[in-house]
Structure formats: C-alpha cells, structure tokens
Amino acid sequence: MEAITVKKLRRVYKGHERKEGFVAAIKSLVARKKVISEALKGINFTINQGEIVGFVGPNGAGKSTTIKILSGVLYPSEGDVRVLGYTPWLERRKYVKHIGAVFGQKSQLWWDLPPADSFQLSREMYAIPAQEFEERLRTLTNLLAVEKVMYRPTRELSLGERMKCEFIMALLHNPQVLFLDEPTIGVDAIAKDEIREFLVEVNKKFRTTILLTTHDMDDIEEICERIIIIDNGTIVYDGNLEKVKKKYLTCKTVDVEFTKIKNQKEFATILSKGTVLEDRKFFKSVRFERKDVDIPSVLKQLMNAADVVDLTVHESRLEHVIKEIYKEKEK
Amino acid sequence: MMRHVRLHVRHAKLRLASRMAYRGDLALSLVAFFLVQLAAPIFAGVIYFAGGEFPGWTIYQVLLLQGILSTIIGVSYMSFFGLLWFTENMVREGKLDIILMRPVNSLWLMIMGGFDEEDGARIVSGLTLIVLALYHIDISGSLTIAILLMFFGILFYLSLAVICSALTLRFIRTRLYEIVNLVQMYASYPGSIYGKKLSIVFSTVVPLLIVAHYPASALLGFAMNGILIAIVSVCVLVTVSIWFWYRTLRKYSSAGG
Ligand SMILES: Nc1ncnc2c1ncn2[C@@H]1O[C@H](COP(=O)(O)OP(=O)(O)O)[C@@H](O)[C@H]1O
Ligand SMILES: [Mg+2]
Fold first, then answer.
1. A233 CB within 6 A, ligand 1
2. ipTM of predicted complex
3. A29 touching B, CB under 8 A?
4. pLDDT tens, A265-287?
5. 3-state secondary structure chain B
6. Are A64 and A140 found together in one domain?
7. Do residues A202 and A297 both lie within one domain?
8. What is the CATH number of the domain that holds A145?
9. Pair (A255, A242) in one structural domain
10. What is the pTM of this model?
11. Are residues A161 and A283 in the same domain?
C-alpha cells in the first residue's frame, strides 16, 4: 500500500533580501530586492507503507523543503501530495497526528524539562491512552536504553542521549510515517549505531514508513534498501540501493597519502588511468576500473613515483557513487 | 478545548516540579523578585510624596493603582506574556515547524511554552501593595466592577502579547519589549495627569487606562469617563490580534520562514 505519493511537486521561494533590525526592515519596505529560487522543480515519487527510504543530495538540493511540505508545515507552489490519504498542508491539524519527525538541528523536547516530562506533554497533546502510552514508552526506552537518562533535564544531556530521546518523542504517538531530516548530525559513532539499529527495529515492529535524509552514507547503507537522490530540485536517481552499488562497483578506489612526489611524470600517468575523486596536495583518491587496470601493479607504481605514507584500497564508497550520478546527470 | 487547558496546567505543574527538584533556589529567587517588585512603586511613591502630585489622587490611591497594575502584569506575565520570548526563540532557532507539527492550537502551544513561574512573585507584590494602600483609604466603589475591569486589563495585555508575537514572527528581534515597558510606564499613573488628547488615546486606540486607572477608579468610586469605549476597544484588540497572529503564521508557512 502506498504511504506517500508525490506528483509534480514544485516549490518556489520568493524572498526579499532581508537584513536584520527594524531600520533595515523599514528600508526594505521601500526598496526591496526580489530573490526567487526554485527549490523543487516538479519531483515525483511514491513510497510504500513499511519502506525505509534514504533521501540523499548535496546541500541546497531541496531535501528539507520536501520534508517540510510532506509534514504539512510548508505550502508547495504546485503539485499533488498524498500522505496516508491526507493532503498535508490542507489538513494539517488532523494529519500531523499520524506522522512523526526528527530534525537534527531542532529539538522537540522542552528544554527546561527532563525528557520524561516532555513525553508526558506529548501524551496529552496526542491524547494517547495512558496504558498504551506506558507500554510504548517502555518499549522505546528499552530499545534505546535511556530509562535513566530521561529523568535528567534535557539541557544536561549529551547530544547522543538527547537525540535518542528525540526519537522517542517522535514515536510515542505511534506515527505511521516518520520523517527524519539529518537526525544523526554530530552524533558519535556508538550512538549512531544504536540509533540505526533502533530504526530498523521500529520499522520491523510497527511497520513505520521512514523517509530519511542524511549526509552520512553509512546511515543509508545500514538501514535503507532504497535511495532517492535529489540534486538541484530534481530527482536524479530513485531505486534499489544494492543495484546502484553493483552498477558502480566495477571499480576500486585507491587513497594515497604522500609527502613528496619523486617522479612527477610517472605519477601523473598513473593518475590518468583512473578518475581522481579527491585531489589535495598530499592526498589523492583515485578510482580505477577493474577491467582497465591491475590494482596491485598500480600500487607498486605509486610507491615508486612518490614517498607514500599511507595507501588504502577500497570498494567505491556510496558517496562517490552518488557524486558519479550527479556528474552523469549534468552532462 | 479541555485538552488544551489540561495541557497548559500539566506543563505548568511539570515546570514547577522540575524547578523545585533541580534548582532549590526557586523560593529564594521568588522572594528577591518580590522585593524588587515592591521597591519600585514605593520608590515612585516616596518621590511624589515629597514633591509632585496627582490631580485628584492621594498617594495611597496611587499606590492602590500601582498594586492593581502589578497584579495584572503578574498574572499576564506568568500565564501568557512569555509568548513573546518564546516566539523570538522559536523563530531564531527556526523551530516554528515543530509547533506546526503538533495536533493542537499553535497559539495556545506557544503561550504555554512561555509560562514563567517567577512572575508569580509580581502577583504577590501587587496584592501586598493593594492591601497596604487599602489600609489607609476607604473604598466607596464596587469591588466586583473593579475585578471585572481587571479582567479586561488582562485581556488588553493578552492582545499586546499576541500582536508583539506576530510582529516577531514577521521581523524577528524587534525590541518590542520596549513598547511593552512604555505601556507599563504610562499605565502606572492616574489618567488625570495626562492631557486631554493623550487621555483620549489611552482610552480608545491604546486603552491602557483599563489596566490600572479604571479598576482603581472603580474601587475608589471615581468617575470613569470613556470606560465603555475602552472595554469595546479591548475586545476589538483581542480579536484583531488573534486574527493577525494566525494570518502571519499562515504567511510564514507559505513563505517558508
Ligand atoms: N525560507 C527560504 N527562503 C528562500 N530560499 C530558501 C528557503 N529555504 C530554502 N531555500 C532554498 O531552497 C533550496 C533548497 O533548500 P533545502 O530544501 O533546505 O535543501 P537541503 O535540505 O537539500 O539542503 C536552497 O537553494 C535554499 O537556499
Ligand atoms: Mg536540509
């Protein structure tokens, strides 16, 4: 069953150049500079109930705009959106009962209260029956191991602890759809792992549909089966994660760090056999097609051409795969 | 509606509980606040006692007026005026989205977020002033009417908070509290000290006389010229301010902040 359908969604931001302060505001009433930007250029996608979809793209691609429209807080300029049968921005008050959201940079917990109190307020806001509430709270706090933490004031919690509580806050009312906008930003590796496991568990247990934007490709690799890649307001890829990886995994990436290049010409020749993904003064990341070159001999040549301090070979990272897709579309 | 009231009460209770559990200083800070509140009007009183005067009002009658003002401000600040600071924080942190994502009335939720227990001390100092003043004067007016008028005074403050909050939504950081302080200053004295024109303004467009002058007059049995217009004006202000607030919020969500 379809949980989310988005058709020809367009969003234009009409703004004025606005400076802070009262005087500037008054001035801008007289002479203001109009700025128009098309954040979404007519995107289409469908997400089925129970799916976890990674929503990926560079900064300014339109991810947050999409999430805001889907969650009912922003009006689109054009297009149709149905989430759980609702048109989010038209039926906002009724609709938001059925969704949850976590934004990495915007806390939903009441700052001066312990998370446990915020949860109580949530219970009141969403009119969750007491017994159901207790049960869900127990399950969720168990999964994230925050039973003790949640009684301390929010402002005293570490980012990882707080984010875990944010997830609980977003899920207490048993939303069918969960929107996550960069929820793991700044969180340490261990907490990130716990959060990922938690999300997979929640998805399995409650069949929660999850749409996740993140800059951390490990997030995507560990929990999503499908990714939608958006760039500059247009969807450039939508499909199975494994497939896209396989397609681009015909190659290996070599990272080489060095202190000096001994033979400039030879070094350049080697690099020219592959595609340079990262190019810094003492560090190169180069992708080689396996059918074109023999990786061990490339390594040997690199050692000869430069004073190498570190050399690693790995499968192409998802990040690079995605960069590659952007480039293809730009052509 | 009941759910909204319950939500507000629960939030206030949780705030208080957490304040007491984590910061034992609540009592101390309340007492300090109380004394500061009490000091200001007494100070003003002493000055005018020494030199200046209020046409038709004795110093104790003025103290009564200031006590009423303090009480009204206390009630307003504690229960809804925090809306202003809350709005500012939400806008600055770009967190209005989160308010919009809740299945409850957005204005109500933001008023709730601004609850501040410390302002309770203002109420206590206001009531103390009233008692102090009444000890020295006879009341020949009506207590019921005075209380009713105080209620309208609170409504006036509500409209002020809602308008300022809407303006904050639009412009972010606009030093609106200075306007509020101005209102408080002008409301601290009997209407008789203002000239004719200003008196008219203060009972119509900006009916700030309703905050203290009229309730005190009602209690003292003084004439209350223009009271009906002031009451109507307050009702209009409240309606318009709430309408304006939602309009601004809708604009915000179509503009994307
Ligand atoms: N409130 C706004 N006013 C004007 N332009 C905006 C606003 N919000 C976002 N934009 C613009 O829309 C585009 C998409 O932004 P956004 O959806 O936040 O991207 P992402 O989340 O993918 O980084 C960007 O070019 C951004 O500058
Ligand atoms: Mg974003």
1. no
2. 0.79
3. no
4. 999 998 888 888 888 989 999 98
5. CHHHHHHHHHHHHHHHHHHHHHCCCHHHHHHHHHHHHHHHHHHHHHHHHHCCCECCECHHHHHHHHHHHHHHHHHHHHHHHCHHHHHHHHHHCCCHHHHHCCCCCHHHHHHHHCCCHHHHHHHHHHHHHHHHHHCCCCCCCCHHHHHHHHHHHHHHHHHHHHHHHHHHHHHCCCCCHHHHHHHHHHHCCCHHHCCHHHHHHHHCCCCHHHCCHHHHHHHHCCCCCCHHHHHHHHHHHHHHHHHHHHHHHHHHHHHCC
6. yes
7. no
8. 3.40.50.300
9. no
10. 0.81
11. no
